[in-house]
């Protein structure tokens, strides 16, 4: 049985001929370094090589035989120093892997400027073997383009997870600090293997308790466990903590006592966690406390924390996900309206954390207008790995394509080529801090992510945070090879299935630019008819605006004019339905049901056609998977097959319920050839 616990770090024995090919190039693992990080690097190489090659791999401090794998930095290895490798361009976390000959012996060198860079190189070396690449003439250099590559856990202290679909939290606070589960080591290994270098342990809707001494000691135990893997711990600071756990009467960021309290709190945290990363803060958003409660701006709020953390080198990640139903404006405009005027007012260790789209992790949104609009404020990206709006853990939806679409989007902030990737990697505006965060999909399920294919989304997040210009298909194919097999009979169809899966979900959930059509509390199934969510900006009807005359949200100049928040030419291209790409048509425009689409079909027929296409594609995915049984172990095969059956059922529900509702307002008959659902 294979429950998927090993993720993509599977070191099962290669087939004999392959193992025989690699064995001469992996005879021994050599390093004289003995830091905590060097020790875990050695352990990983030994575990990986002896597993894959099904033999005992020797360990030593100096090279004894040809085929040695030598790892280290110029500081801890004279051999590496003497090789004069071009490590200058690699920064603190990059690595270099080279085939070399030293003292007449062929060997592989894994080098970096720091032990953590070397660890990343070791994972890359193991991946080469896992994916059956040649390793005899290596010359690989890689360095991360984004500095902070973080998971955001929406885990509560009681182990429930907000929007978590893979069991309960892996962080068992009640057992800490005395017991740190061995799973924490595997968590760190998995993250390090894809370059993730930080983790926010708790939910942005936070409890102040995590900042009490008792919990700081617990967090410190986790930090100690993660440190060798290059992973820093971050916490959420609840704005009202000075009142809740500090006994103060106010949390006003301009109050000297409050400022003092946060300074002491920061000092205390660094006492327990000397390399603490910093705070993530959700303020004045969805009912959370914030500086607005005291008539202060987001900048005044963020800077208070920034001052407290600056002496220790910590950062503040201030979320831009703010909107309120008391503001009469279109919800998607509010973050920009709030933050654009504050550009340049934040201290250098503040990072504005912006969700990919202006609404909320929908199956498809345009990029947030804040990307490119804040040249004087470090601006980072938040994506959601957990699939809150994409079918939880049961629907097979690979998010690599969605993030690639986002990162490749041109903001035109500095003319053509001003992609979101170039904004967030800092190259466009010279940001001092760069950051990409992913809301984690990790839980206590044996397979970590709730399904096998959701592991791919964790993996893709890490890869794209390392290189926001990496390609989703390459990432998918690497993941399939590491997680299942390199056999093309499996690899090709499964990669193709993953690559099409997000568009398929868009088709059966929210085609043509529709958004926020889910049932309102659970966020799982459809609810386009819902108009009673408690407030207008949570109602699906507010977003689809379907009526007798047509469907869609008018955001051109005759509507909310959200298009004006974007740089030209987008502000004009998106202003008119004729020039708006059809996959965003109903996001930007309210158009009549008979609006002529590029296919020649009227909008209504096109819409119904898209829902049908989505269902047909899921059916094809499920059928394809059944063909692949010979290549997969029973347990992972069956879980995936069952979930695809659920996805088939759900896709039909989405289609049929959505069409039934829209038909009830349009009054139109089903297009010719479409059968009524049974
Ligand atoms: O997507 C929404 C979720 C909330 C979440 C919020 C946020 C953590 O439904 O559960 O709260 O976004 O990002 O703050």
TrEMBL record:
Q: Which residues form the Glycosyl hydrolase family 67 C-terminal domain?
A: 450-674
Which GO molecular function terms does the record list?
alpha-glucuronidase activity; xylan alpha-1,2-glucuronosidase activity
Q: Which reaction does it catalyse?
A: Hydrolysis of (1->2)-alpha-D-(4-O-methyl)glucuronosyl links in the main chain of hardwood xylans
Any idea where the Glycosyl hydrolase family 67 catalytic domain is? 129-448
GO BP annotations listed: xylan catabolic process
**Alpha glucuronidase N-terminal domain: residues covered:** 7-125
UniProt-listed Enzyme Commission number(s): 3.2.1.131
Its family remark reads: Belongs to the glycosyl hydrolase 67 family.
This protein is called: Xylan alpha-1,2-glucuronidase
